[in-house]
Specification:
This protein is α+β, with helices and mostly antiparallel strands and 365 residues long. It folds into two domains: 2-48 and 152-210 and 298-355, FAD/NAD(P)-binding domain, CATH 3.50.50.60; 83-148 and 212-295, D-Amino Acid Oxidase, Chain A, domain 2. It has helices at residues 13-24, 56-69, 72-75, 96-111, 121-127, 151-159, 197-201, 260-278, 322-337, 344-348, 352-355, and strands spanning 2-9, 29-33, 48-49, 84-85, 89-93, 117-119, 138-142, 146-148, 163-166, 172-175, 178-181, 184-191, 211-219, 231-234, 239-243, 249-253, 289-297, 304-309, 312-316. The strands form three sheets. Strands 1, 2, 9, 10, 11, 12, 18 and 19 form an eight-stranded mixed β-sheet that branches. Strands 6-7-5-14-15-16-13-17 form an eight-stranded mixed β-sheet, with helices on both faces. It has a three-stranded antiparallel β-sheet with strand order 3-8-4. β10 (172-175) and β11 (178-181) form a beta hairpin.
């Protein structure tokens, strides 16, 4: 049996980022995953990176992570370029209530160093060519938000030089002062297993309110013409859309839940109605590919970070934004394992649910 200082359960972006961070600090690490690198949610996410959030802790994690993402080509080893494309994110408002919520979010974001701002309908239309702004009362914009064109390559880059074992971890067992994690013996464990995290820890008496939520994205075939550069989010229409560097347009009914076979055409109708109202250039785009992803969701849509038992740490419950904040989470988790407690752990620890200290995130996509 292999023995290391830290075993990480989960070879998604979070687990691999934690393993890389620990390795750079001279800690011996092994990652264990039943299906291999990026076989779960990290393998289907679209690579978005944004700083427009509605809570301070989310903004802080995003700001720190963006600083890493901008240097990804220098910090990670990859066979393809890892460039954060700053296309910008536009959150539109068609009512005064939504605009006031966006305005409050932008004020908080600015206090945390995020360069977002409120724009009027005319400026929104100038930022997003083809946007029909007649129904808008305003929008929130951050030109620094963007995406990675090949997000799976980013995940794979985190795995370079990391000892990854493909094995099913059915349980975590105490081994004296340490742990047995599948084929690995370790002094400490980080569980970054996404939706499987709660079930793995429940036999140890650790109850985590993480549930599975299926989410869906439609993709077009590659289109040569550039139809849409920034990502546009219309929460009131449960709609988001973006054209990727390879020409594919991705679009989502943000309320899409349940069975794909029964919901597919209804979700297409939502996308079409929103396109007709806001982005008429997308009306004739067809979306032959529907991709299902999985969110590991907590009651406040914030991650659960930090120790839950002696030598046992959690990094899960990311509610769809694990990729965006993986670098900051890796740094904070590595600090905790080495005896340095970041104040974020006092906000996002597992004990917040029983204590009624939820930090509800209002800016969801």
């Amino acid at each position: 049996m292999n023995r290391v200082e830290v075993a990480v359960v989960g070879a998604g972006v979070t687990g691999l980022a934690v393993a890389r961070e620990l390795t750079t600090r001279g800690v011996s690490v092994a990652v264990v995953d039943r299906a291999g690198i990026a076989a779960g949610a990290s393998g289907v996410q679209p690579g978005g990176v944004r700083q427009q959030w509605g809570t301070r802790v989310a903004c802080r994690l995003a700001r720190e992570s963006v600083a890493f993402w901008r240097e990804a080509n220098e910090l990670l080893v990859s066979q393809v370029p890892l460039d954060l494309r700053a296309c910008g994110y536009l959150f539109v408002a068609e009512s005064a209530t939504t605009l006031e919520r966006l305005r409050a979010n932008v004020a908080l974001q600015n206090e945390e160093g995020v360069t977002s701002r409120i724009v009027g309908p005319e400026e929104a239309a100038a930022l997003v060519l083809g946007l029909d702004a007649d129904a808008l009362v305003g929008a929130a914009w951050c030109g620094d938000d963007g995406y990675f064109d090949r997000p799976q390559a980013v995940v794979e880059a985190f795995a370079n030089g990391i000892d990854v074992h493909r094995a099913d971890v059915a349980e975590l067992r105490r081994d004296g002062n340490g742990w047995i994690v599948g084929p690995i013996a370790a002094s400490a464990v980080v569980v970054a297993g996404g939706v499987d995290t709660a079930a793995l820890l429940a036999p140890l008496g650790v109850e985590l309110p993480i549930i599975r939520e299926d989410r869906y994205l439609f993709f077009s075939e590659p289109i040569r013409e550039r139809l849409l550069e920034p990502l546009v989010v219309a929460a009131e229409r449960a709609f988001a859309a973006k054209q990727l560097a390879d020409g594919r347009v991705l679009a989502s009914d943000l309320g899409a839940r349940g069975d794909a076979d029964s919901g597919r055409e209804r979700w297409r109708a939502t996308i079409r109605a929103a396109s007709e109202a806001l982005l008429p250039q997308l009306v004739h785009v067809s979306y032959p590919l529907l991709v299902r992803g999985v969110y590991d969701v907590t009651p406040d849509h914030q991650p659960i970070l930090g120790p839950v038992d002696e030598g046992l740490f959690v990094a899960a419950g990311f509610s769809g934004h694990g990729f965006m904040i993986a670098p900051a989470v890796a740094r904070i988790t590595a600090d905790a394992l080495l005896g340095e407690r970041d104040p974020v752990l006092d906000i996002l620890g597992a004990d917040r649910f029983a204590a009624g200290r939820l930090v509800s995130e209002p800016q969801l996509v």
